[in-house]
Each structure stands twice: as C-alpha cells, then as structure tokens.
Design goal:
Largest sheet: 12 strands, mixed
Distance between the termini: 33 Å
Order of helices and strands: EEEEEEHEEEEEEHHEEEHEEEE
Number of helices: 4
Radius of gyration: 17 Å
Strand content: 35-45%
Number of strands: 19
Structural class: mainly beta
C-alpha cells in the first residue's frame, strides 16, 4: 500500500496508488480507519500534496558517521533532536524558496517515518505498532545561519524547508534502504539506512521518552554524507528504495 494525498475537485483527499498511473480515493483517514471508494483517478491529472500534515516534525542530527566526518564534528552519546515547524512542509513538485538574503542553502535527503497513533514511552520492540509508514524528506538547511545562530531552529525552519513525499508506505524494511539524492540529475548523496547510527526503533523509543508523538507527526532520521548547496534554478530529488522519488525545484 502506498498512501498519497492529492488535490481533487472537492479539495485534498487521501488515496492509494494503483500501479504507477492511478489513485483510488478513500474515505476517512489512515489514522482513524478508512474505506476504499469506487472512484479511481488518473495520476497524471492530479496534484500530489505532501502525504501528511504533521503537527510537528522531529528531526535527528548527526545520525550517519559519514555526515559527522564531513563536518569534522564529534559523534554524540545520544541522538540530537530538533524541530521543524509544520509551516515548512511542502509536497512533491513544490518549490523550495531560498531567502534572498541567506547564503548557502543545503539539501539533506532523509528517510522519515509517520506516526500512526499516540506514542509515549514506547519500547524499541513495540515501534512497529506506532508507525504508519515511511516517506522521503528533504531537511533543507540555511547553513550559514545555522553556523551563526549556534542552534538550528531558524536555519531549518523557513517556509518550504521541509519537502515530504511522494507517498507513505509501510511495505518497506527501514533497516537497509538505498537512499540517493540528485542535484540537477547528478548523484550527490548515495548511502543506505543500514548506516544509521540510531535506527528507527531506537529513535522512536528515545524521542517518546522525551515527548509524546501524535498521529501524523513525522520523524526525520538524519542525512548521510554528501550534503551541499542548492541555487535557484536547480532541481533536487530524494529517492529511497521502495518508496519513490521526492522532486522539487529551487526558487
């Protein structure tokens, strides 16, 4: 099952991808239960939206050894957490807007997971019960502002700095998925979620012993090495094995 949100003639609706070229609409929502309808629409005529509207995005820093090394940083004893606001979310095909006064704006391709039900003090062995599925996320970062501020909220919180999509699927094993980021067709990040320092189940347990996660919240698991700048006119793609391609222009 690959869950999507699309814009229809009656507004945003959830649906299920049917093959590569159609969407079957559903009634209800994936968090409270849904029913498949008889209405199937061609994908080519639909606008894909971000597949979820999170109340919060909990992101993880320094979760790949290669990314730590490229910034000459030190590993952390525990996961480093920060928040991205829901106002930063955009969907596939939407433009990442670079603030005109900012300097370097970086892509950061990441595996993300979506929370299915209220999660508090979850054990790693229970993690699967609380995860609706997995998606792609680009943790866009104003790198010069990050360095200047000494913390990450402003640098990672601009409008359009959280592209998510194209779908949510629970039919992948997050322990070893190929992750690729391309800038203007050129591969700039190539790694695997097998290299996560803290894997999905451990992250969910760690986060939920700090804060309660609610249905629709998103956790971004961190980016591998190869991050770099984007400029207006560029196109960035984050592809994760079994999930799909999240493609956004830069404006």
């Amino acid at each position: 099952m690959k869950l999507v949100r699309v814009m229809t003639d009656v507004g945003p609706r959830y649906g299920l991808l049917q093959g590569c070229d159609a969407v079957r609409l559903i009634t209800g929502d994936p968090f409270g239960g849904f029913t498949k309808t008889a209405r199937t629409l061609p994908l080519s005529g639909l606008k894909l939206l971000a597949p979820v509207e999170p109340g919060k995005i909990v992101a993880v820093g320094k979760n790949y050894a290669g990314h730590i090394a490229e910034f000459d940083a030190k590993p952390s004893e525990t996961p480093i957490l920060f928040l991205k606001p829901p106002s930063a979310v955009i969907g596939p095909g939407d433009a990442i807007v670079c603030p005109g006064w900012a300097g370097r704006i970086d892509y950061e391709g990441e595996l993300a997971f979506v929370i299915k039900k209220k999660a508090s003090r979850v054990k790693p062995s229970e993690a699967g019960e609380y995860i609706l599925g997995y998606t792609c996320l680009n943790d866009v970062t104003a790198r010069d502002i990050q360095a200047k501020d000494g913390q990450w909220v402003r640098a990672k919180g601009f409008d359009t700095f959280a592209p998510i999509g194209p779908c949510i699927t629970g039919e992948v094993d997050p322990s070893a998925l190929a992750l690729t980021t391309r800038l203007n067709g050129r591969t700039v990040q190539s790694s695997s979620t097998a290299k996560l320092i803290w894997p999905v189940a451990e992250l969910l347990a760690f986060i939920t012993h700090c804060m309660t996660l609610l249905p629709g919240d998103v956790v971004a698991t961190g980016t591998p090495e190869g991050v770099g700048p984007m400029r207006p006119g560029d196109t960035v793609e984050v592809e994760i094995e079994g999930i799909g391609v999240l493609k956004n222009p830069v404006a």
